[in-house]
Amino acid sequence: LENLLLDIGHPAIFRALTAGTNLAADEAEALFHAVQQKDAPGVLGMHDLLGGQRAEAIALLTRLSGGVEVLELARKSLPKNPDIALAIDELAQLAKEATSPGLAVSFDLSELGGFNYESGVVFAAFSPDSPDALARGGRYDEVGRSFGRARPATGFTMDLRRIATLV
Predict the structure, then answer these.
(1) pTM, whole model, 2 decimals?
(2) Quick check: 84 pLDDT over 90?
């Protein structure tokens, strides 16, 4: 496959911004989906629940996507928080390591993963010849906690039929 795009996000930034909000389950789900859908007006519409500065910071995530420059913009624009700084540092390290001929890397800070249980970096791999991701995955360190076995994990899925068709 040629000309792949690796789109990378980090839900820890969203979690740091929403920590301590005490949103009801339906409100938290609505906020999660608004960010995932890049619905800044929807996030800002939760102003009364989140507080003005927090709502603005979360809405900013919907506009923070692009090349490595997005990471510096996030570092300057988002609230100073050690969890946010650590997540941005992890993404910056990936930016250095993920260079390869035929691979473009982008960062999307509104990409939170699919099921709200990802704990670290999430990604999706795209081809210009396919309308959907060829692969998706991320860190899932807390997914086993409900079974008494939370441990570091990484997982991904690949659409092998689509890849075989493209190759």
Answers:
(1) 0.88
(2) yes
